[in-house]
Fold:
Amino acid sequence: MEQLSVEHLTGIRDLTRQDIELIFQTADSFKEVINRPIKKVPSLRDITIANLFFENSTRTRLSFELAEKRLSADVVNFSASSSSVKKGETLIDTVNNILSMKVDMVVMRHPNPGAALFLSQRTNTRVINAGDGTHEHPTQGLLDAFSIRERLGTVEGKKVAIVGDILHSRVALSNIYTLQKLGAEVMVCGPTTLIPKYIDQLGVKVEHNLQRALEWCDVANMLRIQLERQDIQYFPSLREYSMQFGLTKEILDNLDKEIVVMHPGPINRGVEITSDVADSKQSIILQQVENGVAVRMAVIYLLAGKIGR
Amino acid sequence: MEKQVILDDQHVQLTMNRLAYQLIENHSDFSSTVLIGLQPRGIHVLQRLKTILEEITQHSVTCGQLDITFYRDDFRRREKPLIPSATNIDFSIENKKVVLIDDVLYTGRTIRSGLDALLAFGRPTCVELLVLIDRRFQRDLPIQADYIGKAVDTLNSERVSVEWKESEGADKVMLFTPEVNGTVKR
Structure:
């Protein structure tokens, strides 16, 4: 142990259980740091990080930027909408140009699955995937599992149901990998059209009834319906989806146990989750956001430690 | 590797008692003083001192643990990144006298990081340094201790190790000297 087995974080699939535990252990320390009066440590004084966002984001982008700044790294931001990408520059050219300005690490969100891996193989930098299309969103997977560990003490042996648009969700895939590596059982739940074929080959249970999924699980991770990725109609109407798969206070109160409710954001209140559930004591949605900064600090710190001088 | 015991069980106890009395001379009832141990090995010294001090003064002594991993100056100069230990300072050090505590003072770099890390918790009135072992004449930085258990003269190639009853089974301080061509090089 003591250091990560990877040079880049392109997906959770490449990580070992030891890697994940090391990240969590380091994140524990950073969580303490960000609750101090002075929320900053000087570890990455001599590192420059570029945040490349080829797709919209609020939470992830802010979270990464805060994590970088609290480690004292220099940060440059880039968003595709206001750049030369519009003028026809390729991804590799864009990144190589940025790297020529002596950038040590790249955090990238991109609409195409595999973009982070592609970049890590073709450029001379460290890459952290901040979401690549419908593939993976590794730091979200890590922070979700970290939040479960914080609330329930451990992830091992817990039952987690991921509910919603599994087909278009990178959060779902990263969650499945992380949770399974840590010894949790995972179930996916949603309309037939939004569950990928053959997903059971990943070793997850598949359920199409929300009530049964909730009765089975200790933790329910409610995902957003990603209308922007849906090229065709996958269900008759949002209202019908919400009646079948929306989590309400009434359903929660009728369960014979208290489950933990999570949501990676952004929430569509009244669609996948009602307001009273999102704001209830069972929900750890805002803790997830807080933990996001600590977990991202840990990932950046551990990867930066491997950059030679 | 030649092994030499610098302080045994009994001497560690005597030394700790003396350090405790020296602290009492300067800080009397510890009402405006806090003790902060440096992770990981300074914590043992801190715990021992706290017990002795509270027994003698009959006052409780405020203690904290400080991890300095993120303040080190050798990040990215090592093979592997250092993994942090816990920091536990649940009080303000604003206008307090702080005694930093560690087991061995060697290059002074750890203490330098410790001073940096400390400032994130407020502005203390003054900071003092207490160490069980001072490896004299080996400093990279201009840092000296205010309270010293024992000063030893060592070479860079030598290693000092402090063991505790709680973690290693016995209290002792040892000096390891590497052998070069079959002979012990001093």
The beta strands of chain A are 48-53, 74-79, 105-110, 126-132, 159-163, 185-189, 205-207, 219-222, 260-262. The two ends of chain A are 22 Å apart (CA to CA). DSSP finds eleven helices and nine strands in chain A. The longest strand of chain A covers residues 126-132.
